[in-house]
Amino acid sequence: MSAAAGVADLSPVSRAREQKAWYFYDWANSAFATTVAGVLFGPYLIAVAESAAVDDRVSVLGLQVAPGALPAFVITTSTVISAVVLPLLGAVADRTARKKDMLAGFAWAGAFFAALLFFMSGDSWQLGALAFIAANLCFGASAVVNDAILPLISTEEERDAVSSRGWAYGYAGGGLLLALNFVLVSFHATFGLTEGMAVRISLLSAAVWWAGFTFIPWRGLRNHPPQDVEQVEGGVFARSFGQLWETLKDLRNYPMALTFLLAYLFFNDGIQTVISQASVYGVEELGFDTGTVLATYLLVQFVAVFGALLFGRAAGRVGAKRTILVGLVIWMLIVTAALFVPAGQIVPFLALGVAIGIVLGGTQALARSYFSLFIPRGKEAEYFSFYHAMDRGTSWFGTLLFGVVYTLTDSYRPAIFALIVFFVVGGVLLLRVDTERGIREAGNTAPSVV
């Protein structure tokens, strides 16, 4: 027996160690996604802008805007910038071995800008708007790099389970901090705080949480050298632009990846719109107070932990594509049930929240790992930048349809039911994805269950 033959293969141990560290970035950045972007930033920005408003209007680049519309404009601005910038950042990330350093750098920069939200008080809504745009851009950039690391630390066989555990960590971490902040804001007087100060401390806590827990993946991940990148001339940025151009030309050689991206565009837009409009539906249509809706939001967060793990196990048995399709059918049932949920009845509303939690984390986690199978080696960050750019650059389709239907019907019930079209179209397109062909086109190894 040769010496080489007697050496144990330690790569699974090394991958497992990196995977455990990688999970904690989802745990870290979900604090921003839930406490800041999901719950507190929008209402607090409106409140601060109202104190600066003249005749119920504030000036934005010379335009007179109602304070209540500011969060939508701020988020739209941030998503449009992200859609343009992220593909370029993805090209840069693919050309460097220092992906974990890029991940941490974007995370800490995002946390810095998020911390500036603590100083949004009085009438300084402009500071809050600019800080959120910068933080959200860094959030998206770090997500691109984080997702690109997934194929580097997991085999095709492991990927669904690893991605699902990451999402589970995210919902657990984001939900835990949100629960603590819910107590602080709801019982602010008990702590000797004004409501505004309690909100500002909560916003700051999300920044500290994001920055602090990012140290775990930064210390625990290794820097992996780039593989099979395009050979183009110039410095890192010139080469990155060159690689982006080569990838755009080469995309036609990966039709299954393109088909999945189109399917994801639709069904993810439906998911994001349901989540963003659920609180409006609960308060305005069903008559619940904000505290009840926030408590339901927390319920969704914690159920999503188990939902992500459940979907990961299911994918190991029947494949990611079939599991995602089952999830989309459940989403169709959810928006259909929303037509008939009686106003003021908490149990049916909570049941809807549980159903959303079960499929929310699962469909998103598996979409990430499933798409990774179609990415040629050396272009992980770039392809995931397209993935996130489509997510952010088109996320207004669902809210537009929701708003139009509400305007025509004066009811949120048909407005939320109309979102079924996104799940139907996304599901039909997903059915057209030939998983084995897509894996073959990318030059990857097919998992035992596809």
Automatic annotation (TrEMBL):
Membrane topology: Multi-pass membrane protein
Cellular component aspect of the GO annotation: plasma membrane
Predominant cellular place of this UniProt entry's protein: membrane
GO molecular function, one term: transmembrane transporter activity
TM segment ranges: 27-49, 69-90, 102-121, 127-145, 166-191, 197-218, 254-275, 295-312, 324-343, 349-371, 392-409, 415-433
PROSITE patterns: MFS
Matches recorded under InterPro entries: Atg22-like, ATG22/LtaA_families, MFS_dom, MFS_trans_sf
A Pfam family reported for this protein in Swiss-Prot or TrEMBL: ATG22
Keyword Membrane among record annotations: yes
Range of residues in the leader sequence: none
Coiled coil spans: none
Keyword Membrane among UniProt keywords: yes
Keyword set, alphabetical order: Membrane, Transmembrane, Transmembrane helix, Transport
Domain Major facilitator superfamily (MFS) profile: 256-450
Protein's cellular compartments: Cell membrane
Protein name according to UniProt: MFS transporter
Organism expressing this protein natively: Nocardioides euryhalodurans
Lineage: Bacteria, Bacillati, Actinomycetota, Actinomycetes, Propionibacteriales
